[in-house]
Specification:
Helix 6 crosses helix 7, helix 7 runs parallel beside helix 9 and helix 9 crosses helix 13. The protein starts with a helix and ends in a 9-residue tail after the last strand. The chain has 504 residues and is mainly alpha-helical. Among the domains are: 35 residues; 219 residues, Hypothetical protein af1432 (Orthogonal Bundle), CATH 1.10.3210; 74 residues, GMP Synthetase, Chain A, domain 3 (2-Layer Sandwich), CATH 3.30.300. The protein is built from 15 helices and 8 strands. Strand 6 and strand 7 form a beta hairpin.
């Protein structure tokens, strides 16, 4: 190699190396400067964060101190309040202890007084037995008599007050039930009759009805069991009989014969048979309508038909079937109000007069007949117990029996429901006055208000204020046992003292 070329090459290499070194130093200085700036910036940020943290710490410490002060204040107040309450409790405890001491003293004094009273009582009893030669029981009886005599007036007054209070409560409740029942369930009234009239198109039919030698009318009377009266009343024939079913059959048959025009024994027999079927059918329809009206189901159809026969029966001017329906509604309402068996009460009320359907054909009272009818058709014993005491012939065994009696009385006693003949009415007034006058101490007795009230004037020397109430109850009891009447009778006993002097 050429030496000059080698020198040139070596110089180039040295110069290149120096240039690279210079460039590297300059780059390193620039990087170092940048790192220094970044470190300074980081230090400034750290210092700033430290300052913020220190400030926040100071704020937290300040808040904690404030909260501590506040809680301390609250605790102080609570302590003060507890101290006050403790002082109040201590005061109350002291007061209570003082009261207990006073009560204990009073209790001791009462016990001492009680012991003294018992001691005095024993001494008095012993002395009374010694003086009067009486046992303790006899002495008590004498003492009670003496107390009764001394306090007779006050006892009588207290009894009257209690009776009036009880009466007011019962009457208010009863009035509500009765008024509601009468408003909702009152039925129509049918007059009681023992005769039925049939209108004729002409007077000529009277001869046909009588027939040759009276054959037609005799046949009709024999088949129906009634009396046919053909008198001078124009265009009218009267049917007389105490059995309403027979009268209805005779009326129906006679009306059919008049329409047909063929009036002869053979045709009369057919007409009576057809009329009997018609009446039975009407009775069945009436019975079904009745049980549907009162809402009672599951009854024997034959029993329902017997019930329908009451449609043709009246009692004191009141239709028996309508009366039974009315009493059933009232009994159901009362039973529901008193929370007893409403079905038993309603069924008992519906069939309480069932015996009247056949009492013209069978011996015995309608109550006994009704019992046998219900037993025959397998009616529950509770229903029989409910219906049989409604006239007082049997004892009241169930609440339902009382309800049936009350419902029956309400239906019978409401205004306009029943009426008596003049003879029965006068006889009842006489019996009321006779029964009332028979009591000792009674001076005069007057039946007023159509027999709904009795005014009894007593002799003051024989009947005192306490005896007045007993006398009124005795009179009421005897009237209930001996007389039959619709509704109730009020007994008023009057005792009057008069002092008379003359100025001369």
């Amino acid at each position: 190699m050429n030496p000059s070329a080698f020198l040139v090459l070596s110089a180039g290499l040295v110069i290149g190396y120096l240039v690279r070194q210079n460039i590297a130093k300059r780059r390193a200085g620039s990087l170092e400067e940048r790192l220094g700036k970044m470190v300074e910036k980081a230090r400034a940020e750290v210092k700033e964060k430290q300052e913020e943290a220190k400030q926040k710490a100071q704020e937290i410490i300040s808040e904690a101190k404030n909260e501590t002060v506040k809680r301390q204040s609250q605790l102080t107040k609570i302590e003060e309040l507890l101290l006050k309450r403790e002082e109040g409790l201590e005061k109350k405890i002291q007061e209570t202890e003082t009261k207990i001491e006073v009560l204990e003293k009073e209790r001791g004094q009462v016990k001492i007084a009680k012991d003294e009273v018992e001691s005095i009582k024993k001494k008095e009893i012993t002395e009374l037995e010694r003086i009067a030669n009486l046992s303790e029981g006899q002495a008590k009886e004498e003492l009670f008599k003496q107390i009764e005599l001394e306090n007779k007036e006050s006892i009588s007054r207290e009894l009257r007050r209690l009776e009036n209070e009880k009466k007011e409560i019962i009457e208010k409740k009863a009035q509500d039930l009765i008024v509601s029942a009468l408003q909702r369930y009152s039925g129509s009234v049918v007059s009681e009759v023992t005769t039925t009239y049939v209108n004729l198109p002409s007077e000529e039919l009277k001869g046909k009805i009588i027939g040759k030698e009276g054959r037609n009318i005799k046949t009709l009377e024999r088949l129906t069991g009634v009396e046919i009266v053909v008198d001078e009343t124009p265009d009218t024939v009267m049917i007389s009989g105490f059995d309403p079913i027979r009268r209805q059959i005779a009326k129906t048959a006679l009306e059919d014969l008049i329409k047909d025009g063929r009036i002869q024994p053979a045709r009369i027999e057919e007409a009576v048979a057809q009329a009997r079927d018609k009446v039975n059918e009407k009775a069945k329809e009436a019975g079904e309508a009745a049980v549907y009206d009162v809402g009672i189901t599951g009854l024997d159809p034959r029993l329902v038909q017997l019930l329908g026969r009451l449609r043709f029966r009246t009692s004191f001017g009141q239709n028996v079937l309508l009366h039974s329906i009315e009493a059933t509604h009232i009994a159901g309402m009362i039973a529901t109000e008193l929370k007893v068996n409403a079905r038993v009460a309603k069924t008992g009320a519906l069939f309480h007069d069932i015996g009247k359907a056949i009492d013209h054909e069978v011996q015995g009272s309608h109550v006994d007949i009704g019992i046998r009818i219900l037993q025959k058709f397998g009616v529950d014993e509770s229903v029989i117990k409910a219906m049989r005491p409604h006239h007082g012939e049997y004892p009241y065994e169930t609440p339902e029996s009382i309800i049936v009696q009350v419902a029956e009385s309400i239906s019978a006693a409401r205004p306009g429901a029943r009426k008596d003949t003049v003879e029965i009415y006068l006889k009842r007034l006489e019996d009321i006055e006779r029964i009332t006058s028979g009591f000792e101490g009674v001076e005069k007795a007057y039946a007023i208000q159509a027999g709904r009230e009795v005014r009894v004037f007593v002799i003051p020397e024989k009947v005192d204020d306490l005896g007045m109430h007993k006398l009124a109850k005795d009179i009421a009891g005897k009237i209930e046992n001996e007389l039959q009447y619709p509704g109730e009778i009020k007994i008023t006993v009057i005792r009057e003292n008069r002092a008379v002097e003359y100025a001369k």
